[in-house]
Structures are given as C-alpha cells and as structure tokens.
Write a structure and sequence with these properties.
heterodimer; A: 5-stranded parallel beta sheet; 13 helices
Amino acid sequence: MTKAARLGTFFIAFVLCALFFGGLLLVAERPSMRWGLRTTEPIYLHEGNVDVVIGGSSRARRGIFGPYLEEDLREFLPDRDPVVYNLGVAGNGTDAQILAMIELLQYRTVDYVFLQLDMLRRNRPPTHRNLQRLGRTWDIVVAPLQSMTWFEALTHRFQLLYLRFSLAADTCLQLGTECWAPKLKPRPAQTYDLSEPRDLELAELFKKLSQRERRRDGAYFLSDDRDWRFDRGPELRTAFYLDLLIDEAAKQGTRVVLMDFPKFEFAQLNDRTIELVEDRFGLDLITFDRAELREMGSRAWGDFGHFNYVGEAIARGKIVNYIRSEHGHGGH
Amino acid sequence: MFLTPGLYLLALGFACLVYWAVPQRHFGLRAAFLITFSLALVTLYIPALGLAVVLSSLLAYAYTWVQGRLPGKWTAAAFIAIQVGLMLLPDLADLSVVEQAFTLTGIAYFTLRNAGFVIDVYKQKTQSKFSDLIFLNVFFPTYSAGPVENIKTLNTRSCDTGFQAEFILLGAARILVGILKFYVVTQYILDPVAKYFLPNSSAELDYSTPIGVWASLVFGWFSLYISFSGYADIAIGSSRMFGIRVRENFNFPIFATNIQNFWQRWNISIMNFTSEYVYLNFVRVTGLRVGGLFLVFLCIGIWHHFTVNYVIWGLAHATAMTVYLKLDRHERYRAFRSSVQSRRAGRWGLACCGWFLTITFVSLLSGFANAESLKGGLQVLSGLLP
C-alpha cells in the first residue's frame, strides 16, 4: 500500500468516526433531550408568555413554589392565568442555571427573571454538573475555564463532551424516551409537601453554633468578608454567563432581578458586595437584611441551606412586593 | 468499563456496521477505522490517555529502529523499563492532573502489551508495523481491562476475515451474558450480600464477628470475579462480533480446588503473558524455577498496583504456589492423597477441603491487597480473629 493510499484510508476512517460522533451530538442537541430530563416544568406543552422565571440552585428551586406565586400574581393579572416557571437546578455552578434561562428567553416572552444571587460566591466548581446536559454543544466548547491550566481545561472540556455523547447514547438505547418520541409526554409537576414545618435538628444546630462562635459577626449571621472581583476565577465565569443573560433579556425586554436566598447561619452579603454587584451589572437586588433574618430565626429553614414553607412565603412575598412596586411605577 | 453502557453498545453497533460494510480485501480500511474510532473514544474519555497510548506505543516501536543500531539486551531492557515506568506513573506521581489523567484503567494494559512487543522484537519473533502495535493497544473492546493479547495474536491482520452471521449471534449472546453478570448479578445480588456482612468496610470491623468478616471478604471477592469475568465476556463477545477471537480470561476459578488450579483458571491471559515473557525467559537464563515463580507473582502484584499490599499479595501467592508444588511432588503426600481418593467420600472430602482453603486464601488476600494501606489490610485480616 502506498503512502498516499494509507493516508486516504485513515482519512476515510476519520470521516466515518466524525459521522458517528457528529450524529450523536446532533441527537444530544435536541432541546427535549437536554431539558426534558432536568426540569419538571411543562415548557413544551405551554407555548404562551411566561410571567416569572425563577433561576438558581436547589435553594431557588425549593425557595419559591411556583403555583403559590401564580396565585399571588392574579392580583396583577386578573384577566388570565399567570405562568411561573421555576428553573432552579440543584447543584453549584452558574453556567447551566443561567443557560437554561437564556434558552427559555429565546423561545418565550418572559416578563421577569429572578436569579439566585449568592451563587456568585466563591469555591464553586468550574462547571455545573449538568452543563453537559442543559447547555448546547457550543456552550461546552466556549465555556470559560480561565482559572484552570490549558491542560486541565482541555481535559475538562473533553470530559464534558464525553458525558454529552454518553447522555445521547444512553438515552437513545432506552426505547420510548425523549430521543425518539415526537413530543414530550406530559408528566406530573413536582410537588413539595409544605403542610408540615421541617424543623432543624437542634443538636446539630448547637454544634454548628459552638464551632462558629469565634468567627461570628453579629447576633445570628456571619458576614462575607471577601471582596468580589469579576475579573478572575468563579466570579469571572459567573459574570460571563450573567452578561449573556442580561444581553438576551435586554433584547427581549425582560427584567432581570437578582435575589438572595440566604442559608441559615452562613455568611451573608455585606453592603460593599451588594454595591459592587449593582455597579457591575446594574440590576435590582432583593435581599434579606440582618434584622429580618434575626426575626426569622430558625423557623424559616427546612435545613441549613433551604427554606421551608415559612421561608418560602417570606421570599415569595418579596417577589410579589417587587412586582407590585413595578406595577405601581408603571412597569411591566 | 471506560465507556458508559449506552455509548459502548452504540459505538459497537456502529463500528460493526462500518466494519462489515468494508469488503474483506480492504481489511486495511477496517483496521484503520477501528484504530481511529478506538483512539477517538479513548481520547474523548481522557485526552491524556489518548496521548499516553500513542506516546507509549511510539516509544515501544522506536525500539525496532534502535535495535538495528544498538543491539543488545541492555537496550531492550531500557525500553522495557520505560514502559514499566509509565505503568507505575499513576502510583508514583503526585500531580493532580496526572492523577486525573492516568489513574484510570487502561495504562497498565497498553504498557504491558508494549513491553511484550519490545521482547518480541528483541527475540526477532515479530516484524510488525506501527499500525499493528497501535491496533493491539487501542482496540476498544479490550482496551481497558483485557484480556491481554500480544502482537502475534491481535494485529491488523486479524481484520482479514469474511463475514459470518454466527460472529454477530455468538458475540451478542456473549455480551448479554457479560451484561447480566456485570450489571445484574454483581450489583443486585453479590454486592448487597457482601455489604450485609460488613456495611462500611473497615469502619465496621470492630462490630463484626470473624464469620461476618470472612463472609464479607469471600462475597466481595466473588463479586469481583463475577464483574471482572462479565467484563471479559463483553470484551470477548464484542471482539467476536468483528470476527476477532481473543483469549478466554476465566475458566470458573470458583471451582478451583488448589492454588495451582486456581491460577490456571483465574485471569488466564495475564498468566499466559507473564509465563511467556517473564517466567520462561527467567528460568531459561537462571534455571531457578521457584525464583521465576516469585518474579511472576511479584510482577503481577506490582502490575495491579505499586503498593506494599500488592507486593505482599504477590509474595503470598508465590509462597502458596511454591508450597503446593513442593507438597504435590512429595511422595508421602501423594501416597496419602491416593489412599484418601480411593474412596468416593474421600475424593469429595479432599476436593471440598481444597476448595474451601483455596477460596478463603484468595479472598483474604484480595481483601488485604485492596485495602487502602498496609495498616488497613492488617486490620481487615485481624477482623478474622475472635
């Protein structure tokens, strides 16, 4: 075999491989496959406008109960049924959480986006564990990984692609799933049992309190003493995605609001941080001040990270108040 | 398995379609496709692994060029040492990226095959091309966990076969058996039973009875065997679907009645490989059979993991094998065994005793070797004391 023939053979082999992997990527690119498995909202069944979208991690997911908020919004929309989507995705990492919202904005008219604020914090993983599911292939290719070395970033990116291929292949082999189904079947909405309060375990609480005694700032809550800088590491990545969301929202005329979902006994946003975020992004912020948190005590949390029905009602009230004030000022 | 089940099966199906669509006379294209496709899968999984397998193969293949200019055993030894160094890199390196990239399965296999290739070239048993070597190393059904083949039995010429429907049927049946073992028997039956006896490994040792620890170790080993043999079934079945026959790796080691019989049934491909490349060469040079036995098991232990536990594991197996072989050749023992085996009950009794001792021995050593540290391994064994 001549050298040219050998090269030609490998070129044909390469093209055949590219066909396989390209085909898998096309399958994985379908929104029904990417979204269908990760959100309980009937996004594909409802095709009208959306009034409010909540985004963030599990704290946003469990922090606002969509149907209750829809009931509250009837005050402003008496002539139709309000629509609220909660796209909170459990886990750390702003990329998947924000990309899900950006994609929704591209297909639906959305009035308000309430995005969980404190996911901007440090010590986050480079990408959300579901980025390879929720994002488009291009999102994976351009995901900003500046804080990693080039080799780590290359490895990480390849692994995301590998997981994406695996997702497509695994789903394709499960007959009757989103891959082959022409349209998503309706599925029951996820519900939370909010009838009973879920109290904190007191022993665990006291243990944590005793451990934090020396670092405590104020009566109940710690303050975040670290400056946020949006030119490095996790904050840079967050700023990258938040800017994308803000740009898309500006095109669609959607109002983006950042919202704090505090953790019990964890560091709170200080004034300097709030000012910094406002200056950088120019967005409204909904926060809990220290007096409010002190008054809420432990009764508002189901566990250290998530609101229970009491906390949910308070957080929901803040959103309703915000929308009310906007309507009062002739906003949306 | 380095691919998820869905990706593996889909990749296998696609590769089979392309492979058999290419006429037999163009078997070079078949081989080129399998090389490219397998390399793409490995690289996609961990880019550094793709790089490592190519680099390791290039280094081994470079010996064919060097041999003509610098002949001699020391040159060959240096090239083998390079492969051994690469093999031990995951256990020796302390860099996070290297850890991430190299601790995953596969590196031990392709470096071993490359070391075998260097020996074959040194002994002038092969004149294979680089494409043969890279095919041997990246062929995706056997890439990550064997069975271990050498360049003489698995190369691009293996693709020179005509299509037969039985390849697909028998291959698929074998894969089904493997999936059943790997995903059903191990995960739903054996692992829960092993965990029932010892829920949280060493943390629960103080609260477990010696029988509980023993049962946990035996079921843990049995689970390891079933999952490993299930993987071998998948690899053999997948290869069969391409019309390529690879070696069997297990022959019901669970029925072994002595340690020699066990090693004839357990991980057969690695035993054949080490016998051919380590034991025979060592014995031919030194004439020391027992030394060869120790060297083989030491190599297998270090090949698993370069840890004290696995070195002890290898030495223990070598010792047991030596004792058994000496005993087997002892006339008084042979006479005693013959007298016992003359009766049916005696034959069964001896077989059962041998089976119990063999399984217990390999299970305990497996539990010891797989512990996190020497101390942890000793703790596991001390759990057997009342």
